[in-house]
Each structure stands twice: as C-alpha cells, then as structure tokens.
C-alpha cells in the first residue's frame, strides 16, 4: 500500500501519540488540541483498515499492529532528523568557519590561537585556507579575512589592520656584512611573490633612482618566499604582519630603508545577504576579538573593530555573529566577554 502525501502529517502525529501513549500529552507536545490528534489517528486507521490504539478510560494503548507501525515510523523519522541535522548543523555544535590567506593564517592567526583557546576552551574553529573556501555562497564560510581595498561584491567588510612592506633577509647572508644603504639591496639576490607592490615600488619610496633589478626568484605564495629568505636564498620584500614572527626569532633581519605603506589592508568580510543576527551558528568570527589578535591594544574586541574602537559595544563585528546571544545564554557570549555589557570576566590591560 502506498501512503498518500497528505497522510504523512497523520503519521507524524501517530508517532508522537504512540511515544507518549496519551493523546493529551501528544497534543501538548505538538501544540495541537487533543481532538485534532484523535482526528489524525482515526484518519490513519481508516486508511490502513486496522485499529492502532485500544481506547479505554485511562487513555490509549497500542495494538500489535499499532506497535509495528510505531516502531517503523519512529525509525524513519529519526533517520530523517539525522540527515536534516547533518545538512544544517545546530547552532550549538557547528564550529565557526573562517577562511583566510595561507600566509596570514600561518604567521598571524595561528600564533594567536593558543591564547584564544585558553580563553574559550569549549569553542572549536574551522579555519580554511583553500581558495575554494573563499566563496561565500550559502553553506560557505561564516567569515573571511581578505587583503584588498575593502570592497568585494556581495560582501560586507570591516577594517582589521593596515599593512606595510620592508626588505628582510637571513642574518647568515654573507653580503649583509657590508650592506649599509638601501641602494645596496639591489646587489643582493632578490625574491618576489605575487603581491601587488614589489621591489620597484619600494626602491621608489626609498628614493633610489635608476636601479636595475636583477633576475629574481618568483613565488606565487608569500609563505614560500619567506621560507626561501630564511634559507638564505635572497632578500624578500615582506609584509609587516607576515614577517613579525621571523624577526622575533631572529631568523630574518630587517634591511636598511623605509617601510612602504601598503596599498591594501586586511578586512573581516562576511556575506551581505547573510544576516548574522538571524544565523546564530556563526559565532564564527571566533569570538572575543583583539584579545586574540593584540591583547594590549583592546581587551573588549579581539579584532579591535570599528564599534569597539569607539566604545560602542553593540556595533562589535563579532557580537553580531555570536551564537550565544539568546537572552538565557548571554553570559556565555564569546564575543561580548569584557565588552561594555556588564561582563567583567577578563581583566583590563593598558597599552
């Protein structure tokens, strides 16, 4: 026998009634009246030509046929619920999805991850650096960190930080012993990547004219260019935030000359059509912000976003994504911790 689609609701009502063994309790759970539940059950009994419940003064009891149908219906509905849950993970379990550049993730984001994990040990992040994950269709990442001028079609952007470029090289490079002026850098083996600004721009900013650049090793990823510089292959024009870990470990040293202000900056981006307030699963941005990126500069917002820089916590980029903003769970909001919300779980620090 093939069930008509119109009777599928009756099957769902029957499964609830069988689970509770009480029509009134099932009606309460389903937000229906007891008579409506009884009507659905009788309709299903009429279609199947069998009695599913034995009715008595104290309630109802499944018949043998009713028990068989209840078991099958419960299993089928559970399978459907499991598949639906995998298609759309619950807000409480879906990890925030962040997409970013491989170089920024390796040198800037990951070094700040331990501090974030200490502050929020129960939060898990899904960090993607593959180019395929940079597309923000439905089901794509919740947030991204992009390098550009702040304008991408269909995306809302929030300024994160500016950048600068300056030359670096391995301290083991023999030519560094006699290198004292910017124009001498042109005599070194030079490395370049696919950045929009290169050596010619830097030499122009350093007021070095008429320089003839030698043939260079070219890399399509700044991570590889930086590693090549560490191994002593040559000097590279490094971005400030990417070079910082190497400078701190003395694997690279900064060469003479100015820092060139980058044309582009880093931005937090999210789909303009995806309203964060309506999609709580995207605690995505990971949380309480500049505590993760630069704790001394701002304890209120890990990303030191526009709203927090002006003391306007309700405009915090991250707070709009936090999945814990429901009234009963506000105290667990990972984006508002330490912000102007009356929560003072974290000590304030000064610059």
From TrEMBL:
NAD as UniProt keyword: no
Organism: Xanthomonas graminis pv. phlei
Family membership: Belongs to the LysR transcriptional regulatory family.
Lineage: Bacteria, Pseudomonadati, Pseudomonadota, Gammaproteobacteria, Lysobacterales
This protein's name: Transcriptional regulator
The HTH lysR-type domain, residue ranges: 1-63
GO biological process, one term: DNA-templated transcription
PROSITE patterns hit by this protein: HTH_LYSR (PS50931)
Record's keyword terms, sorted: DNA-binding, Transcription, Transcription regulation
Gene Ontology molecular function, alphabetical: DNA-binding transcription factor activity; sequence-specific DNA binding
Highest taxon listed in the record's lineage: Bacteria
CDD domains named in the record: PBP2_GcdR_TrpI_HvrB_AmpR_like
InterPro entries in alphabetical order: LysR-type_TF_proteobact-type, LysR_HTH_N, LysR_subst-bd, WH-like_DNA-bd_sf, WH_DNA-bd_sf
């Amino acid at each position: 026998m093939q069930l008509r689609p119109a009777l599928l609701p009756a099957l769902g009502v029957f499964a609830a009634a069988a689970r509770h063994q009480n029509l009134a309790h099932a009606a309460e759970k389903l937000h229906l009246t007891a008579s409506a539940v009884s009507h659905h059950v009788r309709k299903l009994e009429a279609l199947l030509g069998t009695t599913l419940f034995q009715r008595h003064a104290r309630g109802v009891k499944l018949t043998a046929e009713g028990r068989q149908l209840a078991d099958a219906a419960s299993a089928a509905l559970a399978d459907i619920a499991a598949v639906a849950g995998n298609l759309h993970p619950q807000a409480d379990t879906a990890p925030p999805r962040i997409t970013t550049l491989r170089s920024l993730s390796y040198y800037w984001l990951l070094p700040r991850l331990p501090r974030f994990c200490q502050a929020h040990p129960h939060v898990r992040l899904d960090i993607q650096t593959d180019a395929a994950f940079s597309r923000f269709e439905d089901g794509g990442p919740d947030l991204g960190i992009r390098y550009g001028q702040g304008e991408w079609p269909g995306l809302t952007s929030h300024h994160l930080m500016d950048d600068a470029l300056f030359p670096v090289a391995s301290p083991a490079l023999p030519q560094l012993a006699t290198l004292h002026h910017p124009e001498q850098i042109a005599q070194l083996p030079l490395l370049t990547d696919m950045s929009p600004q290169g050596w010619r721009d830097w030499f122009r900013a350093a007021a070095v004219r008429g320089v003839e650049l030698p043939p260079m090793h070219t890399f399509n990823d700044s991570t590889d260019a930086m590693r090549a510089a560490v191994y002593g292959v040559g000097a590279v024009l490094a971005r400030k935030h990417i070079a910082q870990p190497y400078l701190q470990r003395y694997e690279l040293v900064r060469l003479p000359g100015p820092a060139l202000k980058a044309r582009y900056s880093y931005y937090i981006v999210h789909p303009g059509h995806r309203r964060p307030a309506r999609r709580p699963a995207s605690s995505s941005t990971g949380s309480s912000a500049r505590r993760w990126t630069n704790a001394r500069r701002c304890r209120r917002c890990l990303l030191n976003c526009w709203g927090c820089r002006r003391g306007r916590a309700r405009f915090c980029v991250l707070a709009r994504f936090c999945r814990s903003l429901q009234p009963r769970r506000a105290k667990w909001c990972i984006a508002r911790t330490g912000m102007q919300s009356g929560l003072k779980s974290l000590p304030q620090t000064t610059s």
